[in-house]
Amino acid sequence: MTTLAIPDDDAIDVFRTCISKVRDKDLKNRLSEIEYLIAKTAAEYRKKAEATKLFRLKPMHCAGDVKKDELTSVYTSRFALKGSPGRHIYDRLKNAPAHGRCPLCWQRTVGTLDHYLPKAEFPIYSVLPINLIPACIDCNKLKSDEVPRKASEQTIHPYFDNFEDDRWLVASHKEDDPYTVRFSTDPPDKWTSIAKKRLQKHFQTFELGVLYSSHAAVEIEGIIPRLKNIKRIAGTCGVKTHLHEEWESRLNARTNSWQTALYCELSSNKWFYSGGFE
Ligand SMILES: [Zn+2]
User: Fold this and answer.
1) Please, where are the H alpha helices in the chain?
2) Of 62, 99, 214, 245, which sits most exposed with the smallest number of CB within 10 A?
3) What's the gap in Å between 81 CA and the centre of ligand 1?
4) How remote is the CA of residue 211 from the centroid of ligand 1, in Å?
């Protein structure tokens, strides 16, 4: 997971851009008439997001005389569609994460924008930039249209949360099996119980344990030939030193990557570095 800079787009400007080419006069009038609602609800969203209380917002299935499907269509036909008036904003939001990585799993590449509060329940936020999270296709599908009903059910919001200052991702090896590593969350005691539950909710919603275990097994498969060479030349001590240096390098790059957690485990698991990998 990672944090992203909060988009500074004005909610009304984005909405106006999206509806700028609506030809149906009646629809255009009805959409224009809800601009005040777009501004009002955007301000409410921002306020709640900054207080980690988005779960308090109630689903809103229409706005003024504009129906739900007309609002969601602003997103699909006038924002996400290639060549549509809002597409350049869509692309800018989608391309924001470093290395094109999904901020929710920090593993796969971004393929879409995910509505943090789903447009099926909150169509008024269909094109609100601070509700649109760059995400990989898998994370987008796994979250689906789930709506948080209490504080602890809120997954990590990359624009408003920072869970990366402390180490919380840990890996543990199953002895006698060099390829099986399990990943879990273990945040510091100083975290609030809600923050701990939110992290766990995020980890489960996006099935990060399964994802990271799979990648770790492939990583281990790739390093075993080298570890065998190091052991032959420099012994167990050499293997431990090599794995420790890998861990330090990964930790320096990213506190809670699966690689950091993996090399922490491999360099401290005596069974593994002593020859369990052979
Ligand atoms: Zn993802």
Assistant:
1) 11-19, 25-32, 35-50, 68-78, 87-94, 137-143, 193-205, 208-253, 258-268, 270-271
2) 99
3) 22
4) 10
What is the tens place of the pLDDT at every residue in 53-85?
999 999 988 888 999 999 999 999 999 999 999
Distance 105 CA to ligand 1 centre (A): 4
134-156 pLDDT tens trace: 999 999 999 988 899 999 999 99
d(CA 256, CA 245): 17
Distance 74 CA to ligand 1 centre (A): 25
Q: Are 2 and 97 in contact (CB under 8 A)?
A: yes
Largest interatomic CA distance in the chain: 79
Separation of CA 96 and ligand 1 centre (Å):
14
**Residue 14 Cα, ligand 1 centroid: separation in angstroms?**
25
Question: 36 and 124 in contact (C-beta within 8 Å)?
Answer: no
CA of 176 to the centre of ligand 1 (A): 31
Distance (angstroms) between ligand 1 centre and the Cα of 215 equals 14
Which backbone phi and psi does 225 adopt, to 5 degrees?
Answer: -55, -40
Q: pLDDT tens across 167-193, in order?
A: 999 999 877 888 999 999 999 999 999
Q: Would you call 55 exposed, middle or buried from its count of C-beta atoms within 10 A (0-12, 13-18, 19+)?
A: middle
- HSE (CB half, 13 Å, CA atoms) of 69? 0
Q: Tell me what the mean pLDDT of segment 233-237 comes to.
A: 95
* Single-letter residue type at 46: R
pTM, two decimal places: 0.93
Averaged pLDDT, 92-105: 96
